[in-house]
Amino acid sequence: MFKSNIYAAIKRTPVGGIYIFLKSIFSNSNSQSNESDLIDSLVTNLSIPKTFVEFGFSGWEFNCVGLAKNQKWRGLLVDGVDWNVKVAQQLYGKNVSAKSMWIDIDNMQLLMEYFSDDGLGVLSIDVDGNDYWFLERFISVRPAIISIEFNVSFGLRPITVPYDPGFDRQKKHMSKEYYGASLTALSHLCSKNGYSLVKISSNGVNAFFVRNDLMGNNISSLPVEEAYGPKYFPDGTVAPTDTFWSEIKGEEYVDVTSQDVSINSRGARIF
Predict the structure, then answer these.
(1) What digits encode the pLDDT tens for the residues 96-111?
(2) pTM score > 0.70 for this model?
(3) Which of 6, 83, 186, 213 shows its CA 20 to 30 Å from the CA of 227?
(4) β-bridge partners, 208
(5) From CA 225, how far away is CA 228, in angstroms rounded?
């Protein structure tokens, strides 16, 4: 605790900038697994606007990091943690804007207009909470590529957590596994808006969708049932998703195929 408090204090001082500079010399920023590689591969095969927006990022680890390092691309990174924004502002130059803000449905319109003139190439969402609801709102911008994290513990059930403007994964459930939406739910939303599932990250938690009018060019759709698989922790072990589900199945969910709220612990239908 003492060590973490010292680290937090350093972040708030000018020394924090020195720390960022020194760390950048000895380590490279990257994505959690192969998300950055998958995005780079997709944009290479598609003629799309060289713009990106990413909600939920770490200064050292985020999906569009490869694009952020490319001066031909312009991007917007948004996160509620000031330190992540400070790191991004110091590392990625004038082509990337980083904003510290708590995103909700009401303030999202400002972000939707950010690249309205040029079009949006890549949208990435990883906020561990309202992911489905943010995508439902933002998908009208018609990004060429969508990258979004899904909750593997939800299995193939077509569900998401209900929208909560103050959603905090750390506080919602002691297991910290009650958040986000299933791959099935996100695929349902994307499909009805003209997108196809094309890739899953190697750790099994991030899905990639391409707008249907851009399909082809060696890009083919991927059935949800084939795409869904285990979740891998950074050390290579497999997450016990069935155990996680048993701990959270009594919580409140929305079936996105009907938009009904089901509260298992109160006797509503069980997914």
Answers:
(1) 999 999 999 989 888 8
(2) yes
(3) 213
(4) 147, 199
(5) 6
